Write the structure tokens for this entry.
Amino acid sequence: MINFRDFEISDLDRIAEIMESSLIDPLSKSYLEKIQDSESFIVAIEKEKVVGYIIGKTKNNLGKIISLAVQKDFRKKGVGTKLLISLTKRFKRSGVKKIFLRTRTWNKKAVDFYKNLGFKIVKEIKNYYKNGDDAFLMEKMDD
Ligand SMILES: CC(C)(COP(=O)(O)OP(=O)(O)OC[C@H]1O[C@@H](n2cnc3c(N)ncnc32)[C@H](O)[C@@H]1OP(=O)(O)O)[C@@H](O)C(=O)NCCC(=O)NCCS
């Protein structure tokens, strides 16, 4: 069974591990330490082990998904969906009307994942990432 709770500082090394094996540009540990209080940072736990996380931020009725990843062998079990739904509920309580994120245009798995959850591609941003990759800006109105 998967449980969800807020990030705790003792999760830091596990989150860094998941990021390093899932993302091209993992966030630094010092960045993660700083955001823990001011942002929504939810982790998924299976048998006391962190297997995924989502980080979000709100500003002026706008919610941003900063980062989301699930450990490889726990994917396709609905963990990413549940993390996103938990964050969306929080956003709603904070009065968020619109949620957005950016993802690499070639990351079909992520693009399809967000589309299935109601996000739409609104813009392509050329050369957005450090390595020159293009981004899709995706948005969803909170209903
Ligand atoms: C994108 C990501 C977070 C999705 O996480 P996930 O836990 O695999 O997501 P889910 O299991 O909720 O959904 C993924 C797929 O599994 C399917 N699925 C969910 N539960 C399932 C189940 N019990 N059995 C079979 N399939 C299932 C979903 O329908 C979805 O299908 P789709 O790929 O056709 O859209 C994950 O692939 C990941 O960490 N990727 C690397 C990091 C990344 O790209 N992050 C996003 C960039 S911003």
Observations:
- The domain at 2-141 is CATH 3.40.630.30 (Aminopeptidase).
- The pocket of coenzyme A is lined by residues 22-23, 68-70, 75-81, 103, 107, 109-110, 112-113, 116 (CB under 6 Å).
- The CA atoms of residues 8 and 63 lie 22 Å apart.
- The chain has one domain: 2-141.
